[in-house]
Structures are given as structure tokens and as C-alpha cells.
Fold this protein.
Amino acid sequence: MIQASEHLSQRRLDSCDVLLGLADGVATSPAAARASRLSLSFLSQSLASSPEGCIDGLITGRYVRAAQQKLSAALARSRKTYGASSTIVAAHLVGNRLSVVNVGDSRAYLRSATGEIRQLSRDHTELERLREEGLLEDGKEYASMYSSLSDCLVADPEAEDFQIHRTVAELNFGELLVLCSDGVHEVLGDSKWREVIGEAEAAMELVLRAKDEIFQLGAPDNFSIIVAELAPAGQ
């Protein structure tokens, strides 16, 4: 697990069972950075200690709930850290089978070999709820409060009714899996971000292009990006 002001790396993983994830501390909450770090750590620990809770060998929402419970146990007892909050998105890859879980507005995308881009996560916001229910009015501008989080991980033992989204898919050769925080898709905008994902030929190229585009816009929010692809044996 890495938490740094700036970090860029490229790694090859030979394991056929990999958990990738990122968490984004909610800035208006106390101890936001600590909440994000612990959320990822507790998610990984829960999966490693109780793999029998998986469905077909893949991560489920129960591990996210376990991470929230551990987060509450660690931070909710202190007035300084009570209510510490974070979004989270994680992808569990076993072979080429993939399970994505998320809470909040950190996202996961899958780019197919033909360039089709599919969002695997769900934003937990009022705006997204209105969109899904067909209640958004064309041409109407909605106040920023509609984009506020409706669900996230909170260090509060009574905050256990949050929504978790789970999607199962496959990651095949020639495809890219992309995870990002809202400091990417909110700053670039959905259309521009999808353009960046679609034009990159490889994982690191996508990361560097996104970083450049965000810095050109002043990088008003911190941001994290993970891009993964399957490589044939020996490459």
C-alpha cells in the first residue's frame, strides 16, 4: 500500500490473484488521509483473513462492510478522528475474472480491445440517483450539492447502512482496467476523461496523459489513478 504526495511506478505482478484499490479521504471529514489509508489496509486484511466469504473466489461487499467496522473501531473512539471518511474502489482479479466494489465516487472503468469504455462502478451521489431514475431534466443545471456524496466509509459504528456497488466482469488481453478518484473525472469532466482512456495505447501512457491534462487545469484536487492490463507470459 502506498500513500505519498506524489508517486509514479510501474510493476509487473505474476500472481493470478490480485487486489487493486484506491481510497480518497473526504476532505471535509477529520483525519481524511488516515481514513483512506486504513480503509484500504482493512479491506486487504479482511479479504486475506477470510477468503471463504468470496463468491466464486471474488471479493464481495461484505469485505467492504468489514473494513468500515474496523475503521470505526480504530478511529471512532476519539473526538479528533470520529467521523473520518473515505471513498473506496477496489478490483479483485483472479485469472481474468474480475469483481469491482465501490462506495462513493471513486470509479472503475474497463476499456475493451475495440476501444469501448464501460464504467464498472457507481457514483453514490444524489445526481446519479436522479439519473438512474430518469428524473434528470435535460438542459437543467444542478447545484453542486447534488454531486455531494450520499454514501462513503465513515468511522462511526452506527453508519452501517451505506450502499455498496459490485460488478463482475472479465479482463482480457488487449483491455485496460482503470481506477481513479474524483480528482480525475471531476476535474477533466466525463467526456475528456473518456477521451484520454480511449486514446492511450498502454497503461503508463494513460497515467502520464491524465496527469498532464490534470496539471494543465491546475490540479485543484488531489488525485489517484491505477491502470492494469494483462500481459502474455514472458512479456
Observations:
- The mean pLDDT is 93.
- Residues 181 and 224 are 5 Å apart (CA to CA).
- The radius of gyration is 17 Å.
- The longest strand covers residues 85-94.
